[in-house]
Amino acid sequence: MGEDQVEIDNEAGSSQSTSQPYHRKRGKTIDAMDIGSIVQISITDVPSQPWTTVTTNDEFVSHLIQLYFTWEAPVYDMVEKSLFIAEMRSGDPTSSRYCSPLLVNAMLATACRYSDRDASFEDGDDPLSCGNHFFEEAKRLWQVGDQSTCLTNMQSLAIMHYFESHRANDGVGINYFDTAMNMYHELALKDHDVSDASESPLELSWPCWKLWVCRCYASIVLREPYFIPPPNLPEPKMPDQVDLNDTWHPYPQLTRSRPYPKMEMMRQCIAFAKVIQETTVYLYSKSTTKYEPKAILDIHQKFRAWYDGYINAVNRTDSDLGPDMTMRIWYHALEIHLFRGSITTAAPVCAENTQMISSALDIICNSAKLQRAYFQLYGAKAIILLTYNSFQSALFTLYFLEFPEYKEAFIEHVKMLSRLAKKRGMSAFQLYTVKALARREGVQLPDETLGILQELEPAKLNFEKRLSRIPVPALSSKAATLSRFKEELSSVRARAAETGSPSLADVGPRATEDTTGRPSRTRLFNFDEIDPILGGLSDFYQQMLTLEDKE
């Protein structure tokens, strides 16, 4: 993973101060990443009317639509841009099949997360209110409108689910996702007659495959077997030759557009999702009763095989391309999920087990550097992927703060959660969970994070109320194993200091190498244990991420 190893010396000039309160009034400053509000940049013009009642400002709506298509790539862009733009420009909702007021308002709500313009906030004094006005309009349209199965309804509901996730209301938003998946079954799994004028298989292909990919990725996070078959539709076709129109520009930055292998990235997302689906079915099916470390090693080899193929397939001459960096961050996050979520209390220190844990720690360090580079270039844009990766990584490294490189990675991931939490309730709650676990485990946090975590105090009662309703041993169930490994790692480094040998030579291969080895006779992995942070949706996840009071 050499491309992830570049050292970053300075924090992003566009980053927000880590001393900024979470619930203060918004100032009238302009984020350096949103210079489109003061500099004219060429964007796709679309009308605000008749699509939304929230604003009549065509330029602002065009600004948000451009943000959506720029920063939701390459995973969450479920809307096929050319079809959508053409119909939005037509201004005729009654005859549109690929654009609707519901879809437009859902997209505008999501895009507000990427903008610091005053009009992006429902309440100018509340930074967490970004997009709420458009989302409330989308909710109203869904409640009073036609709820029959159609492409735009399916897309809208999936987008609304992710918006609720950002607000830490995933337990509420999951209902939108469930309804979207019901529509997916009707639209994507039926036998498609080419003479059927309702929906073209080719035009359904992109959004249906994207939705299947997103739900598949969610399944491994939620520890659920993913049995839903892929669409009965052709995969988006690779072009016969390079399409010069396939470019990506980090709007609203004043930089050139760069070649973006859009269809290749889509193909890679699908290929990785197929690996993830196979993984979830093997690991989380009720029929599976026995798990061996070799199985986890084999699964990780499939992860690595996909990643190696991805690196070879995607043009590596532009390693700073936003969608490519986003995809690599997501891959690392799922690697950490595989490792961290599978450790049990009884696992002894041995060659295979220490290999897995040390590999996970190296991945965390590398992803911290990659995320820092991404933030310096683009700001806190790839929201879901960044917040999940940093949450996972902070939980894992909490027990290894005595080691400088892991302490540095922990600090970086806490900083990323802090940046994201300025406008996203989910990230704020994740950050507070890290603080709460450190307190319960008696872990002394680095001085560099104390000021950041202190900013959460205004929301303490709200967060503690949610935590009190949930069993949160979290890392406690893994504490013994991780502590034993930490002791072993300390002794290895002490011996290395005395002999001058490499500090981890006796611990096992590093994460930059292929993970191979003989199956362990010990049981490091036990999927009968429910991870209280990454546990099943039904018994934990809805409660944990639902912050609305139920008085």
From TrEMBL:
Composition-biased stretches (Polar residues): 12-21
- State the UniProt keywords alphabetically: Nucleus
State what protein this is by name. Xylanolytic transcriptional activator regulatory domain-containing protein
Bias (Acidic residues) occurs at 1-10
Q: Which GO terms describe its molecular function?
A: DNA binding; zinc ion binding
Q: What is the lineage of its organism?
A: Eukaryota, Fungi, Dikarya, Ascomycota, Pezizomycotina
PANTHER family in the record: ZN(II)2CYS6 TRANSCRIPTION FACTOR (EUROFUNG), ZN(II)2CYS6 TRANSCRIPTION FACTOR (EUROFUNG)-RELATED
Task: Report residue spans for region: Disordered.
Answer: 1-26, 496-521
| Single biological process term from Gene Ontology | DNA-templated transcription
| InterPro entries according to UniProt | Notoamide_regulator (IPR053187), XnlR_reg_dom (IPR007219)
Q: Does the keyword Iron-sulfur apply?
A: no
Q: Which residues form the Xylanolytic transcriptional activator regulatory domain?
A: 65-307
